[in-house]
Design goal:
The complex is a heterodimer of chains A (342) and B (178). Chain A is an alpha+beta fold. Chain A has nine helices and seven strands, in the order H-H-H-H-E-E-E-E-E-H-H-H-E-E-H-H. Chain A is rod-shaped, with a radius of gyration of 61 Å. Chain B contains six helices and ten strands, in the order H-H-E-E-H-E-E-E-H-E-E-E-H-E-H-E. Classes of the chains: A alpha+beta (342), B alpha/beta (178).
Chain lengths: 342, 178
Amino acid sequence: MRSWLKNLPIKNKLIVIILICSAIALMLEALGYIVYERKRVREDMLRDLTSVARIVADRSTAALAFNDNKVALETLAALKAKRNITAAAIYDESGKVFARYDSGEDQPYPFPDESSLAGSIREEGQYVHMVEPILMDGIPLGNVFIRASLRELDQMWQNFLVITALIALFTVFITLFLASRLQRLVSGPLEQLTGTALQIGEHKDYSLRATQEGRDEVGALVTAFNGMLETIESRNRELLLANQRLADSEGELRTVNDDLEQRVRDRTAEMQALFDSASVGIVLAKNSIISSCNRRMDQLFGYATGEQVGQSARIWYIDEEAYLASGEAMYAQIARGETYAC
Amino acid sequence: MHKPLTHGFLAVLLLSLGICLIPTVHADEELEDKVKAAYLFHLVKFVDWPGLPPDELRICVYGSKSMADLMGELSNRKVKERTLKIDANDPSDPSRCQVVFIGRTEKRWHSLLEKTAGLPILTVSDHDGFARRGGMVGFYADGGKIRLEINPGVTHKANLRLSSKLLELARTVPAAKE
C-alpha cells in the first residue's frame, strides 16, 4: 500500500490522502452519530410510550373506579394512532384484564392474567412491554400494559443507515471534486519545477528558469534551483573562457618552443662546426671516459671519427704512471678553477 | 348479556377500601350497598368543591343503615388530602356536609334537596330518578351493574365541578324543573 502510494504522482497522492482522511473522518462522525441516534431514538420511543401509558392510566381511573370498561375500551382504541403499539390492556388491581386492545396488525396477544407486571419497562425480543400503575388519590386501582413493536425502530435504522451511506457517498464525490481541483495549489508549482528540471536534463540548456508562483517551500526551492542554474551557467561561461585562454596560450607556447628549438638547433650546428673546425684537439670526458671529441683530436691520435668515444683517457698515455700523474695535475688545476691545457 | 357483579371485582374494590366481605342473608343487597359505598367513596375524588375545608371532608348518610355502616368503616381515611368524616346520625342541618347520601328508603329526600339547594353540597342517592328530580348523582342498576346518572345543571348551579372522566361514563340527565 505504502510503496504503491510512494510511486504515485504527487497530485494523485494528495487526492488519495484527502479522500482517505475525509472518508475516515466521515465514518467516525457517522458512527458517533449513529450510536447517539440509536440511544436517542430508543429513549424517545420509550418516553413517548411512557407518556401514552400515563395518559391512558389517568383517563382510566373513573372507568376502573366505577367498573365501567366502555370508557376504558374507548381510551385504548385511541391507541390505534400509535402504530408501534400492537397491544394494550388495562388490568384491575387483582391482575385481571379489565379492558384490552389489539391493533390486529400482529399475532393476537394472549394478555395473560397477572402478567408479571413488575418492572415498568421490559424487552421481549422485537417487543417492549411497558407497565404503568393506575393511581387515584394515591390508591392503586390497576395497571396499564402496553406492548409496542420495535420493528419501526429497526426500519428507522435501515433508513438511517441508507441515508448516512448516501450522504457519505455524496460527500466523497464532492471531496474528490474539490481535492482534484485544490491539489493543483500544491502539485502545480512542483510539476512545473519538475518539467523545467527534466527539460534542462534533456537539452542541457541551463539558460532555462523555473517560474516562482509563491513564497512557500516550493517557491524557495524554485529560487534555489534558479540560483543553482545561475551558478552553473556562470561557471560554464568562465570555464569556456578559461579553456579558450588555455588553448590560445598553448598555441603561443608552441610557437615559442618551436622558435627555441630552432635556435638550439642553429646554435648546436654552429658549435659543432666550431668544434669540428678547431685547430686544437678538444675532448669532453666524464670520469676519465671520453664522451665526445672533435675531428682534430681524432687526427692527433690517429683514430677514426667517433672511435675514441666510450674509451678511457688512458689510451692517450704510454703507461699507467704517466696517465695517473697527468690526471693528478689536471684535477688539481681544475680544482683551483684554472684551465688545463696540454 | 352483562355479567353480574363478580365477587372477584368486588373483592378487589373492597380490599382497596379495607372493607371485608361479610356473608349475609341478603347477599345481593349487601353486595349492592358495598358497591355503592365504594362508588360514593370514589365519587368524591372526581368532584371539586369551592372553599373546601382544609382538614376534613364530611359525608352525611341519610336513610340507609347498611350504607351508614359501610361508610363508617371508611371514616378517617384520607381523600383529597383530607380526613374523611362520616356523619350517619341523620343530622338535621346538612349544610356542614360536602356530600349528602340519601338512601332509597329515605322519605325526606325532597326536603333535604331543598335544604341543600344552591349550596356546594353533592347530593347522591340510589332513589329511582333522583337526578331527574333535582338531585345531582343517582345510582341505578343496569344489567347487573350499578351505573351513574348525573344532572350537570344542578351541580353547575351548586358551583360543583365534576371531572370530565366522571361525566364520560355517567348518563347525564336534564333537570326535571326548568
